[in-house]
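Consider the following assembly input.
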Amino acid sequence: MTPALRGLVVLAGFVVVPAILFWLGGRAERSHGRLLSFACRRIAWLGWTALVVFTLSFFLMRAVPGGPFDDERRMAPQVKRNLEARFGLDRPVAEQYLAALGGLPSLDFGPCMTLRDFTVREIIAQGLPPSMLLGLAALAWMLLIGVPVGVLAATRRGSTLDVTLTALASLGMAVPNFVLAGALMMPLVFWSGWLPAAGLTTVDAVLLPSFCLGAPFAAQVARLVRTGLLEVLTQDWVRTARAKGLSERRVVLGHALRGAMLPVVTFLGPALAGILTGSLVIEQVFAIPGVGTHFVQSALNRDYTLSLGMVMLYTVLVYGLNAVADLIHGLLDPRVSLS
Amino acid sequence: MGGGFTRNLVLLGLLILTGLLFRSVLADATLPPADLVIANGPDPRSLDPAVTTAIADGRVLSSLFEGLLDVDPRTLEPVPALAATMPEVSEDGLTWTFAIRDGLKWSDGEPLDATGLRWSFLRFLDPSTAARFTELLYGVRGAKAFNDTGDGQDAVGIEAPDARTLIFRLERPVPHFAAILTLFPLYPVPRHAVLRFGAQWVKPEHYVCNGPFRPVFWRVRDRIRVVKNPHYRCADEVALQTVDYLCTESAAAQLNLYVNDRADIITEVPTAAVPELIRRYGEDATGEFRPTARLGTFFYRINTTRSPFTNRKVRLALSLAVDRQSIVENVTRAGELPARSLVPPGTRCASVEYEPPLVARFDLARAKTLLAEGLQELNLTVADVPVFEVLYSADVVDQAVAEVLQKQWETLGLRCRLVNMDGGSIRTAIRQLDYAIGRSSWIGDFNDPSNFLELFVSDSGGNRTGFEDAAYDSSITEAAPRAASDAERARLFRAAETRLLAEAPFIPIYHYVSRSMVKPWVRGYHRNVLDWHPPRWWSIER
C-alpha cells in the first residue's frame, strides 16, 4: 500500500470509527449505564477533534512563510532540492498530507526536520516523562497549598489571616510563573545553595520549577475553596450537623469540604491545560528537558513534522485531561449527568 | 458507585504514576559527574558532520572528530592533523597533495586511510546525503556537477592513489583551501559504520569517530556526554575523561548554571546582565568574563530594488544617520566594536592582516544633505517617502537596536514602522526581496575576507539586497584568488570592499564579541577571534 493510499484509509477511519462509537455510546446509555456511554462519546469526539486539528495544523504550518531549511546562509538550489527530496517536501501537498496522516495511528510523525538524528516519536518519548513529572508535581503543589489555604481563609472569615491569605492569592494569580521563578531563585538557589539552578538530574531539582508552575493555580484553588466553603457553610444541613454536636473540624473537613471541592474539580481541566502550556516557559528557565520547549521552537523553526507531533500531543492531553476532570466531577456530584 | 472508593483508586493511580515517572526521569541521577561541563546552547542538528550547520553543532563535533587539517587555537593557523604535514601545493595552485599519517584509527579500532577519506568527501558531495555546505568544496574539479546531478562521481577531482596520499585537483585557485579543510562539516565519517547502519549510524551506540572523544548518550534538551577515545592518535595528550555538552538554550539558564557551579564553560550570557558581569567577573575582577572580538558582523540589509532605496545617496544617508557608538555603549554593552565595514577588523589574508576600509562616522548634517540630494535625483521630497518597514527579530538587543534606528531616522524626517518577526520569516522575506530594511548577521567560519565579501557577489545566495556590480564580482571571484601574493590579495579585497561600502546595500551596525564565561580552573581554553576552542587541549587544574 502506498503512503497516500494508507492516508486515505486512515482519513476514512477517522470519520467513520468515531461515528460508530458515537452510535454505540447512544445505545450503551440504555443498556450499560452512563459511564460507558460517556466514554464512547468522548472518544468519538476526540477522534474527530484530532482529525480537524491535524488537518488545520498541517496546512497552517505550510501556509506560514519560510520552510524548515531556510537559514541565513546562502544555499545552492540543488542543495535545497536535495534536502526537500530527503523529507518528501518535493511531493504535492495533498500527497504529503495523506502520507503524514497515514502515520498517525501508529504515532509515526516521521523524522524530525531540525534534530536530524531523531524521529518525532523519539523526541516526544524522551521529553514527555520530565514534562509529566513537572506537571504532576505542580498539580500536587496546587492542591497541597490551595486547599488548606482556602479552608483556613473560609473558617477564619474576615480575620487578618483571611485578608492576608486572600491578598496573597490575588497576588499569586497575577504574578507570571517566570517572575516568581526569578524571585525565588535568588534566596533558594544562589544565597543559600539549597536547590540546583537548572537541569533535572536530582530529586530536589523538581521542587522549585514545579512550585513556580503550580503556585498561580494554587492561588486560584484557594479562592475557589474559600468561596465554595463559605457558601456550603451557610446551608441548613451544616447547621443541623453543628446542632447534632459535631466538632467544627468534622463539620468542615468531614462534610462541608466535599461540597466545596466541586468547583475545584471543574477547575482541574483548565488548570491542567494551563500547567501544560505554562511549562513551556518554566522548562526554558530551569533547563528541563521536557517537551514544552519543542512546542514553541518547532513552530519557529518550521519543523513541520515535530510541530505536528507536538500539536497532536497537546490536543490529546488537553482533551483527555478535561474528560477525566469531567468524569471525576460526575462521580463526585450525582446532580451532574455524564453526557 | 462509591465516591470514596473511586477517589482512593484515582489517588492511588496518580501516586503510582508519579513514582514510576520519578524512577524513569531520575534513573540517571546517579550519573557520575563529568570532568568538565560546557553549556553549549541549542541541541546540535545532528552528529553527522555533513548535515550540521550551526556553531553549536561544530563545538560538539570538534570533540568527536579531526579533519585533514586543524586550527591552532592560539594562532588560528591551519596545522596538520590527519595529514602528516602541510599539503604540497602545485605552482598554479590547482593541485593540493596531502600525505596522510600512518596508523590512524577510528574509535572502534578500524584503520583510517586516504581511501576512506576520499569516500567521506564524495559522500559529502553526494546529493542523497543532502549536506548543507557542499559549496565549501565547489572549488574542487567536478564537485559542483556531482552535487548537482548525482552523476560524475569519478570525475570529481579527489584522488587517493595509495592509502597514504590524498590529492585535490581544483577548478580554480582557492588560496584559503587549507582553512576550508579545517571546517567541521568536512570532518571524515566512517565508511564501514555508515554503510552498515545507514541513517542509524549517528546513534551513540553505533557511532564511530576519530577525534579525542566519542559520544555515550544524547538526551535532547539535556546533554550530550562524550568520553575519551582511546584510539585517538594523541590520546596521551587528552587530559579529560568525560565532557558534558549541555543543550541549554536559554542564556539566563546558562548563567544560573555557571554561578551555581554546575557548568565550567558557558557560551552565552543574558545581555541585561552584561554590565554586572563585567563588574564582577571582568578583566579587573576574576577575568572569567572577558568578551573578546570575534569575526562576526551585525548589519541591516537594504532592499536596493525598492524606491527610494534604489538611490545610493539615500542608502548612504541612512547609514550615516546611525550612531553606532551609542548602540554599543547603551544597548549591547559587552565591548562590541561599532561596525564601519563588512569584514571585521582582525581578519587576515594568510600572512597579511587585512585592514578593512571604513564608512564615515555618524554625521547627521551630512546625512541630511545626502538624503536631500538623493531624493532630488528621484524627484522626491522627504514628505513623499512612504512609511517603510524595518524587520527585526524577537530578541531584546535586536529590538533595542531597531528602536534606536527608528529614532535616528526620524531626525532625517523618515518614518518607519518596526516589524517584529521570527528568524525564519525574516530570512524568507529577505530572500524573496519582500522587505525594505531587515536585520542580518554573518559569523565568519574561517579567517579570510572572502568569507564575508562573497556574500555580496551578484549571484551569491547570500546577497539578497538586489545589489549587483560586475566589477565587484570579478575582483572577488576572479582576480583575488589569482593574486600573486597575500598582500596583493588583501589590496584587491580592500578595493572591492571600498566599492561595496560606497554603494551601501547594507548598514553595518556592530561587530560581535564572544560572550563566553570560563571558570578559572579550566586550562587550554584560548580566546580567539573565531571563538574556536578544540577540546583536545582542555584540562582542569584546581
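Chain B has 16 helices and 22 strands. Ask yourself how this observation constrains the way the partners meet.
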